[in-house]
Amino acid sequence: MTDRPYSGPLKGLRILEIGHFIAAPFCTRVLADLGADVIKIEPPAGDPVRKWGAAVEGRSLWWSVHARNKRSIALNLKASGAVDVVRRIVRDCDAVVENFRPGQLARMGLGNDVLRADNPGLVIGHVSGFGQDGPYRDRAAFGVVGEAIGGLRYLSDHAPGTSDLPPVRAGVSIGDSLAGLYAALGIAASLWQRDRTGGDGRGRTLDVALTDSVLSMMEGMLPEYGELGRIRQPSGSRIPTAAPSSAYPSRDGKWVVIAGNSEPLFQRLAGLMYRRDLIDDPRFADNPARVANVAALDAIIEGWTRQHDAAALLSLLEQADVPSTKIYDAADCAADPQYALRGMVRQVEDPHLGRTLTHPGIVPLVTDDPGDIRWCGPDIGEHTDEVLTGAGYTPEAIGALRADRVIA
Predict the structure, then answer these.
(1) Is the Cα torsion angle 356, 359, 364, 367 positive or negative in sign?
(2) 25, 47 in Cβ contact below 8 A?
(3) Which of 8, 33, 15, 30 has the alpha carbon at shortest distance from 125?
(4) Which residue, of 326, 359, 389, is where some domain finishes?
(5) pLDDT tens column, 287-320
(6) Active site residue 176
(7) Burial zone of 319 (CB within 10 Å; 0-12 exposed, 13-18 middle, 19+ buried)
(8) Boundary-marking domain end, from 274, 294, 326
(9) Catalytic residue among 176, 200, 281, 379
């Protein structure tokens, strides 16, 4: 832990995370980045994400980001006495975020009534696969399940008839992250309602489902089906409602996204390709016509992009003010000057590894008080004694809890 002071618009809030894997911890990372004091309860063996992804000296690089700005307490929630520890900590918290299966915390003796017994204004956020009610509430679920049942995995596939491979995923656990973002928004909204001028001081309960979070992002998919009986289909790299807008190959084997889908943009793109005849071609006269004839149009654009290396191609497109970019990999993101200037790629000292790591920055950027990366993902139980002392435990009481294996 560093001695950097807390900063950011959520400075002064205290959040207890009883979470594991991705969704709830992603929610609290967002809140912690914005200045909240997040206390993370982990089992003595640690959050499973500590062992996920590439590692250096046995430490997950993802963990350095995933748990940054949080204080870790190692607590065996199944041990006798653990409930009292949680209750003592919760007394001084503004919110709790958890992502066990529905009802699991209550079975441990930590239901909403218990958590609010000494803190009626506590906001409690439950994040789960399918929500706290409904016929699927007790099913096991991870982000991939939410992405599949929410319609995202279907729409993120290649266009029908172009591939026999399984539907592709986004490449990251986007369903978990979406649920985490909705939970963070819900926490902030509930605290605002509780604490605003004229607020009632009453706690709120949030019910965030991975499946709901994904489905809510599906644009016009449901109304199109409900009104027209139309099932929106995957479109690969293209946008089904606008053209041209896709990724096109360059001479040196890169992929360049070009979005020339408004009338002025398409005219500039056609001029850049020395194909102003396309402007008067009835197949491409307006956006609906271009969408109807997108395969022919994309073949023409691809024939042009293949004549240029990616760097030269992007220079031409930028000069013509046509929205475009190379499709970035990790190295491109790390070297990008726009990300660097905005602090979205930054160097952070991780004392657990004894080196500087490259971290993503803080989103959203609150320009007057942007928050900070105060420290990287902590060791298991690194702050156990600190947190319990703050909750009123004496050194002797902490020692007794450790002897009884309630804490590690």
Answers:
(1) positive
(2) yes
(3) 15
(4) 326
(5) 999 999 999 999 999 999 999 999 999 999 999 9
(6) yes
(7) exposed
(8) 326
(9) 176
